[in-house]
Amino acid sequence: GNRYAINWAESDKVKLVNAGTAYESSAISISPDKKTAEFTFEGAAGISGRFDIYSPSASVKSVSGSGVTLNLAQSQSCKATTPDAKACLIMGSGETPDLNVHFGHLVSYVKLTIKGLLPNEPVNSVNVQAYGSVMAGDITFDESGVPVYGGHSNDKDNIYVGAWSIGKANASGELTVWFATKPFTLAAGKKFTVLVKQNQPDPDSGQNKEVTIYNFSTTAAQDVEFEVGKVVSLPVRIPSVKHKVTFETTLGCSR
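Request: output the structure for the sequence above.
Response:
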């Protein structure tokens, strides 16, 4: 399957954890191809032994002697061709004195293409739900450093994707949104629900509020694997009838 590329940006901050103490990067220097980066950490000159680096820094929810807890946000935004950078969770590990680290992904990425919208139809957000699956929430690590994705009190089976940076469907009535999810398997026969929302004036207050204009479910014809670091392409089609229409189709995917 396709793997999502790691590209660094000048605004990126990472967090280094060594022996239960966390250090946030204070500076970054990026290679011309954006594939590698060099970080500066204030106060971390004396670290010794194994260390882990997590990106983005804001995804680190807590650090203690018992381990690190990350959080994959349930509410994300996206751009036309990329998911929310704040949701692209990656980590790397090393051991002093070697400070070179290779990063790997912690989440899966989804390119959801919605077909059947009206041409240039305004869209504010998309909500996706895989009932009974774990899509967002905390990520912890076992004693061997293996990520633990489920079993947390804030596990969520849905993700809200703000699409305001895109704003509308294209002239063909298609809209593509990207998001990150914890890895999981959508088993054959399970439903995947999509709600497309639009800002509309509230007749009472006169203020804009989000209104669901499409509400539909697709059923997986076969197991769909949302794997760490890979991009799953999901094309779905909705009918021409608007306003909270509920219907079902068969989910197709490519990886």
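Confidence is low (pLDDT under 50) at residues 242-255.
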